[in-house]
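Let us work through a complete example step by step.
Step 1: write down the sequence.
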Amino acid sequence: MALLPLHLISLTILLHLVAAQQTNGSVPVGASLTATPDAKPWLSSSGEFALGFKQVQDNFLLSIWYDKIPEKTIIWYPEDGPTVPAGSKVDLIDRRGLVLSDPQGKEVWSSRSISDLAYAYMNDTGNFVIAGSNSRNIWESFDHPADNILPTQIIPRGGVINSKMGKTNFTRGRFQLRLLQDGNLVLNTLEMFSGSAGNAYYISGTRDESNATNSGFQLVFDTAGYMYILRGNGERVDLTVRESLPSGDYYHRATLDSDGVFTRYYYPKNPTEATSWRVIWYVPENICKTIDSKACGLNNVCSLDDNKPKCECPQGFSLLDPNTPNGDCKPDFIPSCDEGESNKGGDVFDFIELTNIDWPTSDYVHMNPTNEQTCRTSCLNDCFCAVAIYRDNQCWKKQLPLANGKKDPSQNVKAFLKFRKIDGPSGTGENKNGTGENKSGTGENKSRRTLILVGSVFSSMFVLGIVLLIGVIYVCFLQIHKKKVGNSFPDSAPVETRLARFTYQELFEATDGFKVELGKGAFGTVYKGVIGTKIVAVKKLETMVKDGQKEFKTEIISCRKSVVFDDDAEDVTVLTELAWDCCHEGVGEVTEPSCPCPFSVTSYCLSSN
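Step 2: predict the structure and record it as tokens.
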């Protein structure tokens, strides 16, 4: 009994220690979190930042986020943003650091801290730190940024920030921010398959060719939200102007968005009304006009919407990945130089006309000067030409894929997208441009395609009708044949092979030489006979005319006895309990002495009378 209070005291102390860890942001070695919708994260001492699992659609993302704003904006996640199912865990393990594992215990990601660990803590700056036994920081999330940098964070030479693929897709995106070894801060696209960097579409100009020590050395984001590039000689190159920063208490972040724009945001810490993140600075100013940005994927078209790029596939194209609007667009038709089409031009192809859209870098022929009709005709008759651009009495013929597409209402430009007439332009089903006006390169309307469509429908219906008719005839034939076979000998019982057979001589003796006549029918006479102790009636066929055998069968059937006639062999076989037909050789001229013909005999309506 004395042990019970001791256990209660120990439990109380443990709970106080856990509460203290949550209050000061400290996380002990051996601590863990499980991915569930209501899991409590590891909080910073101020409660402004949290590390834990955020639910992303049906899975969970290990991440750091702003915990005091409704959006819970995520500012860090492991490289490539791996999501895990419910039940996954993150553990702080000695000599391994943070370890993310799935429900089966398989490691998904690790911070790979190999030194002896003392503890970790969630800093009020948004930096998660793992400390060693000597209290030295051996791993920090700030050293491994995702798509954001925060105040007090520094990006050194060689540092990289990658965009994510989309709003809820945290895999590595198409854009990078890098502080190069030469001192320039650049933005560039990322080749998705090889991972190599493309040409820069933004350059800070902080490289000093005459004196490398004066080139850019660090990208600094200070506590006040001021962002600049620090040169080797201590000089600062401003990226954001101090006067542009709002006064007051705000959260700040700089994000390389999934659209390729590097943007500075701020958010009031104590808002008096509903609010959201606001923009105070971004580069480049118009990403759609920067040739190397490739803000939108291949064949895609970029336009500005509230100073942010908006990507849309033009008519005749559709997204390769519907979840990535700034990705590549696949064409519904690809021109070819097949012999059947290459020399037919306007007879086979037509155009979709788009206005104020251009792909500036995809041309292989430049015609100058020319007119619109010549531009159209030249593309129609060129099997390599997928799109023709006409502007200022000039024509550019282009091949697929198209790159750096942009829409600019200030430019008076027309784009002619080729399509095959028999297919019709995608999304419309008829040969029209965006305004509904017929823009056929040959002046033909859609009647030819309509005729082809109607002919195809009627042909299909005719073939279907023939198939159905054959099916009905076949089914009817089976039913008739089945009925005929089933009814070939109605009301007959199966043959009883145990029945005795009698020769003509035996029946002759049983009837005493066919002596006592009981009656006469149309085709035979019935005689009284005795077999053993039983009195029987024996019918003898006298005449075999056309219907004699049929009549004889009918009489037997009416007696409800076991009867089988083998018509195919032209045999008449009558099996009953007492008699059988001796004319097994068939009806006709029979010379066998045992069966003087033509006649048949059978048991006839045996009864107690």
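Step 3: interpret the result. The longest helix spans residues 447-486.
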